[in-house]
Amino acid sequence: MLKVKHLTKSYKEKKVLKNLSFEIKKGHIAIFLGDSGVGKSTLLRILNNLESYEKGFFFLDDKPLNLKKINIDHTIGIVFQHFNLFDHLSTQENITLPLIKSQKKSKKEANKLANTLLKHYNLSKEKNVLANKLSGGQKQRLALARTLALNPKIICLDEPTSALDPKLTSQIAKDIQQVATNNQIVLISTHDTTLVKQLDAHLFLLQEGSIVEKAFTKSYLLNQEKYPLINHFLQSH
Predict the structure, then answer these.
(1) How many other C-beta atoms can be found within 10 angstroms of the C-beta atom of residue 14?
(2) b vs e for 53-63, b when ≥16 Cβ sit within 10 Å of the residue's Cβ?
(3) Do 189 and 44 meet the contact criterion of CB atoms below 8 Å apart?
(4) From 3.10.290.10, 3.10.350.10, 3.40.50.1970, 3.40.50.300, which CATH number describes the 1-75+155-237 domain?
(5) Which of 12, 30, 38, 73 has its CA 20 to 30 A from that of 218?
(6) What is the C-alpha separation between 138 and 237, in angstroms, rounded?
(7) Domain boundaries, the chain
(8) Rounded to whole angstroms, how far apart are CA atoms 51 and 45?
(9) Which SUPFAM superfamilies match (predicted)?
(10) Assign residue 184 a region: left if phi > 0, alpha if psi is -120 to 50, beta otherwise?
(11) Model confidence at 218, in pLDDT bands (50, 70, 90)?
(12) Residue 211's beta-bridge partner residues?
């Protein structure tokens, strides 16, 4: 289980996250909803040691989680909104390079794992294609595969379907749901109502840096009036 307690983050005089606390069990998905600027992406970046914070406590399986080591032990991984792929490298090399450089795997080991992931995400035919030649959906799947290759316990996805059409969103939703079934924790920042309705997830609505309402997707869909703030947000997007 991941526990985040009393997380506070400011940009100059503006508090982006205010005493934020939540917990998510292994094999579960958390979706953070909210308008731009409420701190959704900032939360994911802090967890990946890409942003500083003023206050906060982090625990994984009831043991303190040191975010300073995240880039070394890859306990947490992130798929960025704009993918951040190595455009000048092939699809396969996008997966093997981090494995060789960060985890010191042999080229043979890295290629074997890459080929398994490329097959799983239906990218085998594109393995020698440069990343910048892929479609939006292919780039998203490659970015997810590259992150999963490092075997993190927690996967963060920042606006994973922002550039995709509804059909591709459905496929990404299936991919995300499958990741959770592997007993990994999935954290998503999004405002995509189509994605929200296709995932079994915990919903957290952020306003002005705080969680103002939470629900489980199925509970919300069965009784939307019970969650007026989440309902208003989703109906207006």
Answers:
(1) 10
(2) beebebebeee
(3) yes
(4) 3.40.50.300
(5) 38
(6) 25
(7) 1-75+155-237, 85-151
(8) 6
(9) P-loop containing nucleoside triphosphate hydrolases
(10) beta
(11) very high
(12) 206
Contact 194, 163 (CB under 8 A): no
Any residues with CB less than 8 A from the CB of 95 and at least 6 apart, and which? 110, 113, 114, 117, 118, 142, 145, 146, 149
- Whose tokens are 């109502």? That residue is 193
- Provide the 3-class DSSP secondary structure of residue 230: helix
Give bridge partners of residue 3 from the DSSP assignment. 23, 59
Compute, in degrees rounded to 10, the torsion defined by CA atoms 198, 203, 209, 210.
Answer: 170
Q: Where are the alpha helices (DSSP H) in 60-183?
A: 70-73, 91-102, 107-120, 136-149, 166-181
Q: Is the pTM of this model over 0.85?
A: yes
Find tokens 């802090």 and name the residue. 46
138 three-state secondary structure = helix
Q: Give the amino acid at 59.
A: F
Rounded Cα gap, residues 134 and 206, in angstroms: 34
Measured between alpha carbons, how far is 99 from 210 in angstroms, rounded to an integer? Answer: 37
Contact 8, 55 (CB under 8 A): yes
